[in-house]
Amino acid sequence: MTAKNLQDTTTLHNGVKMPWFGLGVFKVEEGPELINAVKSAITNGYRSIDTAAIYQNEVGVGKGIQEGLNEAGLTREDLFVTSKVWNSDLGYESTIAAYEESLEKLGLDYLDLYLIHWPVAGKYKDAWRALETLYKEGRVKAIGVSNFQIHHLEDLMMDAEIKPMINQVECHPRLTQKELQSFCKEYGIQLEAWSPLMQGQLLDNETLQQIANKYNKSVAQIILRWDLQNGIVTIPKSTKEHRIIENANVFDFELTQEDIDAIDGLNQNHRVGPDPDNFDF
């Protein structure tokens, strides 16, 4: 089912509802711009905010959340907040401590989703046990991973009591992740796209421009709509209110199968971010 509006949710395998569409804040530094971006996302209907410890902006995200909730007359329960444990904290005790620290910075009592940020060899299983503990204790609503390839997921699930609810990966028309998507679907793991707009590198793509013209939409809107019709949760980043509003204006049209095939055909397995099988941080 494709989302019909900005508050529509997908149901994760544990029954928790997660919005299909959210705001990402990667590389947005602490300060008024960040606070205003989060606040304006919430006041303009977004119900999902995605951050991470390594972004070093959880304090500002927390402030933006408070201001946004107050202005929109919402409660904490109306929002879905994600953060991620960084590589240097991947260990049983250290992951639990990192979770506490993220909560404190965000000014929240719980997270809706907590992710292992990268599959650091030899470390992610201990971290996953910590996430399972937090989940079983009811301190986080859902747990998952980020940047995990199929073999990482298979390895993790060999020992896991609880399988991940989410796998958040780089995904865009140049990196369609079809095999990974099929694998995740088979195991009931929801795929989520980071960098869905390929950091702006696709905005002058001819194929996408032609499709955008056909629907009188922007290339960004076409890509985000393609995510949703592929059943992928998406979290485009923007700090400008008009762009935050524009990005979410994707619920009044539908791509044809022909359009979707044309966008799928742009795949080159090309990454703008690090390779999960070959990173050293």
UniProtKB/TrEMBL annotation:
InterPro entries: AKR (IPR020471), AKR5G (IPR044500), Aldo/ket_reductase_CS (IPR018170), NAD(P)_OxRdtase_dom_sf (IPR036812), NADP_OxRdtase_dom (IPR023210). It comes from the Bacteria. Residues 32-267 form the NADP-dependent oxidoreductase domain. Coiled coil: none annotated. It holds the Pfam family Aldo_ket_red. Keywords: Oxidoreductase. The active site is at Y55. GO terms for molecular function: oxidoreductase activity. Substrate binds at H117. The record marks K84 as: Lowers pKa of active site Tyr. Belongs to the aldo/keto reductase family. This is Glyoxal reductase.
